Amino acid sequence: AAINPDVKVVAHKERLTADNAQRLIAGYDIVADGSDNFTTRYLLNDICHRLGKTLVSAALLRFEAQLSTFKSHLGAPHPCYRCLFPEEPPEDLIPRCETAGILGPVAGVMGSLQATEVLKEILGIGDSLTGRLVLFDALSMAFREVRFKRDPKCPTCGH
C-alpha cells in the first residue's frame, strides 16, 4: 500500500456461481481466471462476453499449462473460450488437479505469464494473446503457440 497507494485489493469470500457471477464481475475491467474446473471457466467466459470484460485465462495440470486472452466482446475477429473449446469435456476425461496434481513451479510460471498479460491489457501495449493459445510443457521446457479463430456458430459470441 505504501508503494502503490492507488491499488485496492477486494476479497470476495464466496464461491463464484451462475447466481452471483454477474454481480461479482461487473465492477472489473479484466478477469484473471485460474480456476480449477471447467464449469467455472465456461461461466467466466460467458459472463465476461456478456458484460464486455477481458478474460485472461490460465490453466494447468501436472507438467503442462495453457494461457490465452479472450476479448470476444470487441467483436470479430476476437474469439471467446467456447470458440476454442466449444463444450465442457466429460467429467471423467480430464482428471482434476486434486487428483492428478500440479507442479508448483508450473503454476508459478503460468501465474507470472498471466500477470504479464493482464498488465499488457491494462497498459494497452504489446501483442495481445487474443486468438492465440500458449501451451507450456515443463518436461521438455518448451512453449508452443496455437492460433484459433472466432467461430461464427459459437453459442456465446457467434452471430
Question: Could you give a short description of this structure?
Answer:
The chain has 159 residues and is an alpha+beta fold. The chain is 30% helix and 19% strand.
SSE ordering: HEHEEHHHEE
Strand-pairing-aware structural class: alpha+beta
Weakly predicted, low-confidence segments: none
Largest sheet: 5 strands, mixed
Overall 3D geometry?
Answer: globular
Helix content bin: 25-40%
| Order of strands in the sheet with most strands | 1-2-3-4-5
Beta-strand segment tally: 5
Instruction: Compute the average pLDDT.
Output: 92
State the distance separating the first and last CA atoms.
Answer: 45 Å
The Rg value, from CA coordinates, equals 16 Å
Counting H and I runs of at least 4 residues, what is the number of helices? 5
% residues in beta strands? 15-25%
